[in-house]
Amino acid sequence: MRDATPQTVYLKDYTPPEYLIDSVELNFDLDEQNTLVESRLCMRRNPQSTDPGMSLILAGEDLELVNISLDGKPLAEADFAITPEAMTLHRVPQDRPFVVNIENRINPKANTALEGLYLSGSMLCTQCEAQGFRKITWFLDRPDVMTRFKTTLTADKSQYPVLLSNGNKIGQGELEHNRHWVGWEDPFAKPCYLFALVAGQLACVADNFTTMSGRQIALEIFVEQHNVDKCTHAMQSLKNAMRWDEETYGLEYDLDLYMIVAVDHFNMGAMENKGLNVFNTKFVLARPDTATDSDYEHIEGVIGHEYFHNWSGNRITCRDWFQLSLKEGFTVFRDQQFTGDRTSAAVKRIEDVNALRTRQFAEDAGPLAHPIRPEAYIEINNFYTLTVYEKGAEVVRMLHTLLGAAGFRKGCDLYFARHDGQAVTCEDFINAMEAANGVELNQFRRWYSQAGTPVLTVSQQFDTQAQQLRLTMQQSCPPTPNQPEKAPLHIPVKLGLLAPDGSPAPIVLDGRQHEEITLNLTQSEQTFVFDKLARQPVVSLLRGFSAPVNLNMPRSLEELAFLLQHDSDTFNRWEAGQQLAVKVIFDLIEDLHQQRPLHLNALVVKAFNGLLAEEGDDLSYQALLLALPDESYLAGQMPVIDVDAIHHAREFVKTTLAHDLLDDFERVYRIHHRDESGKFSADAIGRRRLKNACLSYLNQLESGASYALAKAQFEQARNMTDQIAALSAIVNSHHPDKAECLDRFYQQWQREALVIDKWFALQASSHMPDTFATVQRLMQHPAFDMHTPNRVRALIGAFSQANPLHFHAKNGEGYRFLADQVLALNTLNPQIASRMVTGLAQWRRYDGKRQELMKQQLHRIVATEALSKDVYEIASKSLA
């Protein structure tokens, strides 16, 4: 068992820092195993401190002390104490500024957790958010301590010719023995989590950007030499983001230099360090033959996200880590807006909501549920969650809906003006929105403190004589850990009405006529009355997914088919198709349970026939309309998840559609199948998405013709989108050439790590019977590396999180496998290990046998010696 239970940190216990750091000078003598760090901290007592003590406590982990002095005088051993997590200076001046000098050693090569300063290949780099800086040197490692950094890097010139840090370069020079130095200074105060350092043999791709005020900004992307030809899209994405932020929010970049570095070993997607963003290579490198259309869009979105953080995260940062959604939820909303403007707004909204409802709603419904502003944590890295990010973005989106685009912009302008250079709270953000718009948002604040997904139940009554529609809405929210009872929320509900012919029906409310309105649901139950309706309309509710809720509104199959055909709201039209498929699939699941023969409702075939006949402008949207609900989303709708029945019923629908609409799928495929490699226009991307959606359906037929079609596309593809789509079809079938195609793909791309990640993930997520044996075999593959987070996510993550059929095998082999890997990762990389544990967190949602098997593995994990805080928190909460 563990020696001691890790301590919980509570929001209610927040106190201001006892000391402040006015400036810090850092000197690094870089070496992959023996880096020497010298820090000079200019400090003073915080006048807002409430602690009368005279000691100074600096956070620090895995550090070897060399020297320490106070105001130039070396300290004796009796003057300070060191524990595994901190250094305490017993007496420091209280009435004047003072200087602490610390010299310590660290071993980047031994740092497999990838926090602090670590080695990625031959490159040294840092990751300091949330609490990685304490693994570099002793410091006040908390976001509300903001200071100005001056950094000098010294290293062997051959091994580390490029030396980078935050801010502006202020000097460089040559030293004896083939060594050199570079000095950096950041003019903006920042918390230490935004510090960055990179050293290595890197090539630079350079460009520039002219701001709206006419300033010239140098743009530099640093990558390993063999990746230079994959940076064009990232650079253009950065310039697109800079221009968009100026035009949409009036925000201009503030330094003279903006740098991005791509590294192979990275726990996250990217990090917004001031002026020096460190990125996972996955979100920088792209070439048409190595990256899919989705990769291109994700790269632009993540580049935008980290750039937007310059204001919503850096210039204004979090007071404490409980406020994480202040920067992340806001910035996710901003990057969603950006991507929607740059691509298809309809497709972007649907993709975001689909991910939210599939994964975040599951988080809300399980033992790990928490508000977007949590009340407590054991390990802050565990709260970089879908709730904080994605639900946090939905809460910001609701503010945008309630205030309107102009009102939201006014609120943002005031927020940036009020709090520039400060570490603030979610409350400060809401206060700015209220003050700028003259509104009161007290009830809306509950979204920040209440966990769980609200359920919106709607009933309707139509009075033919009075020509009146009455909509009654009830809101409720299931209990979540530590929150058994919930207060009503302020829920914006966008609504439209459709006449029987499919045209918009005018909405008359309070004597005014509208085509679309936003209703404010603020009570547990409210009734809204609509007058002057000659015939009963079809209600289009929660348009654009105007609030992150589960909508419970009885609909017939015919009504859903009507909305799928006529609704002018692109989200609700797609949603009608999804719910039509959901109802049909659940009817088939009941047939399976009752051992009745399966038949597909003709209404579904007719609806899909209509979709295939469309000739709309947005082909990417048309491809989404053809997609069936994910198995994970379907699982979220069942009180007790039956993974086998879900898979078989969904496959039956897909196969039957392919059989009944064979000619239509082939026709649409042939129309849009063409070589447009290197073209990323909306039309070209849409054609690829639509034809590959058709290929996926045709693959269900397991026929000689479908095998030949997939093989031909695989062999002829000149872009990764088409090649991986064809390989996916082959892998998820009994294709006779499957092994040959997998081997050819590997041989072709074995030197491209990100492409091989796709190769691993495709096999790990396959629904074919031999998948678990394949995953076990791939664990021994020479290209698999437990030290590389991307590779772990591609194999172990894909199997446990994207393959419900085989991960939840009745014999429990998937659960044992995952627990084995979690324990192996626990000592290597606790952050990645804790993310893997979440695959077991939803054990209560399954049948009794699976529950016991999953609990056994969670108990086994918790009982392990030397378990990291990261893994302990997730595993123990899952069992609580």
Termini separation:
17 Å
Q: Which secondary-structure class do the elements indicate?
A: alpha+beta
Measured by DSSP, the beta-strand proportion falls in: 15-25%
Helical fraction: 40-55%
Number of strands: 34
Computed Rg: 28 Å
Strand arrangement across the biggest beta sheet: 6-5-9-3-2-12-15-14
Number of helices: 26
Anisotropy-based shape: globular
CATH architecture descriptor of one domain:
Sandwich
Biggest sheet overview: 8 strands, mixed
**CATH topology-level fold name of one domain:** Immunoglobulin-like
- CATH level-four homologous superfamily name of one domain: tricorn interacting facor f3 domain
Mean pLDDT: 97
Low-confidence stretches: none
Given this structure, which CATH class of one domain is correct? Answer: Mainly Beta
In brief, what are we looking at here?
The chain has 880 residues and is α+β, with helices and mostly antiparallel strands.
